[in-house]
Amino acid sequence: MKAECLAAVPVRWMIRDDVAAVLSIEGASFDRPWGAAELLSALRTEGVVGVVAESGGCVAGFMVYAPRGRAIDVLRLAVAPGARRRGVGRQLLGRLAARLAPAGRTRIALGVPERLLTAQLFLRACGFRAIAIERGEGGETREDVYVFERAWTPDPRLSAVGGGLGMDDPS
User: Fold this and answer.
1) I want to staple 128 with a disulfide (CB 3.0 to 4.6 A). Which of 34, 90, 145, 150 is the partner?
2) What are the tens digits of pLDDT across the range 20-41?
3) Measured between alpha carbons, how far is 29 from 46 in angstroms, rounded to an integer?
4) pTM confidence score
5) Is the separation of the CB atoms in 77 and 89 below 8 Å?
6) For residue 170, what pLDDT is reported?
7) DSSP 139
C-alpha cells in the first residue's frame, strides 16, 4: 500500500539548529553516515548549500548540493524514515530543479553506491538515468558508485513545487 503523499512541504535553508535532526536522518539513512564535523565541513565549502524540508514543524528531509559547471551535484539527500514514500525527496529535488534555469544550469547529478537499490529506484522514478559507473569510488568500502543525472529544459508550465517531477502545485 502506498503511503499518503504529503502536501507541499516548506523547503528552506539549513541552519545550525537543524544539525541534530539532519544527523539523525543521516544516521537512519546511510551505513556510513556523516558526523557533525563532516556535515559542517561540507557546508563551509564554497558554493555548497544545505536545505531542509519540514513537515509538522520537524525536519522531514534534507539535501546538500553544490554547483559544478552547468550542473548541480547533490552530495547528500535523505528523508526521515517516517516521511519516506510521501513525496518529500521528490519535492526536494523539484525545488532544486526549479532553480536550475535561473542559475544557467541544466542538469542535476548524484552518485549512489551500488548497494542502495531503493535510492536507485527512487531516482529512476524521478526521471534520472544512470550515466556512468565509478569503479571502487564508494569511500572506505571501495564499492562501485552509479552516477545518475537528469537534464531539464526550462518549461514555464512546470510547477515550481515539482520542477517537472510529477508534482502538482497545490496553490
Assistant:
1) 150
2) 999 999 999 988 899 999 999 9
3) 26
4) 0.83
5) yes
6) 28
7) G
Nearest residue to 130 (alpha-carbon basis) of 119, 140, 141:
119
Quote the cell numbers at residue 116.
Answer: 542502495
pLDDT in tens, the chain (171 residues): 344 555 678 999 999 999 999 999 999 998 889 999 999 999 999 999 999 999 888 999 999 999 999 999 999 999 999 999 999 999 999 989 888 878 889 999 999 999 899 999 999 999 999 999 998 765 566 789 999 999 976 555 444 444 444 433 322
Query: In the CATH scheme, what is the homologous superfamily, with its name and number, of domain 11-151?
Result: Gcn5-related N-acetyltransferase (GNAT) (3.40.630.30)
By C-alpha distance, which of 55, 120, 62 is closest to 82? 55
* Crossing angle (nearest 10°) for helices 19-29 and 36-44: 110
Q: Where in the chain are the domains?
A: 11-151
User: Which pairing describes strands 107-113 and 71-79: parallel, antiparallel, or unpaired?
Assistant: parallel
Q: List the one residue out of 20, 50, 52, 47 whose CA is nearest residue 36.
A: 20
What are the grid coordinates assigned to 155, written together? Answer: 518549461
